[in-house]
Specification:
Helix content is 63%, strand content 6%. By secondary structure, it is mainly α. The longest helix has 30 residues, at 131-160.
Length: 249
Amino acid sequence: MKLARIVNLVALGLLLLLLIRAVLAAIPSTALAARGGGGAVGMVVAMFLLAMPVAWCAKAFDEGRLRRLMGLGVALGAIAGLAWMALTMVLADRRDVSLYSITVILGAWTTAGAAAIGFMGLMIRQRQDLLIGRIVRLVAIALVALALGQGALAATAMELDWPAWDGPPPNEPDAAVPIKVAIASGVLAGGAVIASLVLAALSHGTGPAPVRPRFEFGIRCPRCGRAQRLRSGGDACAACGLRITVEAA
């Protein structure tokens, strides 16, 4: 079974359970309503948003695009989901502030990582026939990752009460510098994404980028002479570690 299908099934199951929990929290006679619902509706929205980049990672993984990195994105998404569910379902009513803060920080950074890798998985599927388009696409990926990192940093700063983040609202002249950097990176990321989409359309490359077929082949290592089977796209000799790359013509 494809990883994307597994991710979609798990996400749908979790969303269904969270929706049921949200409905029960809205019924006054239930125990969840007596506890205040534990942010049930917010958790449904958060898990829905988190499921999208994880699904993008799984799709790219199935297509053979940066498989290790995309697998890491799926793993980070799973950790983030567990962290947010623990916050609303387990830790919301507890007094252990340190554990709560650690979970918030863990959830923020794993969410940022999963979202950044998922966005990369989405963008590398975009056909870019022009060199400038490929450059802008890389810039867009980097800026989105920077903006997501700024968001995770802001969550960390709020949990740890960092003084550098204290100050007037972002629209005030004396607003804290980190807040200004976060806003600027977000605006630049949005502009780069739009530019990348426009360049893809101009180059008539709106369809998915072609995927090179992956296959196994038998070879004798030119360094140590060991006979073995390797995978195309770049693999290492099991004996001496020599990197051997073979692609389909």
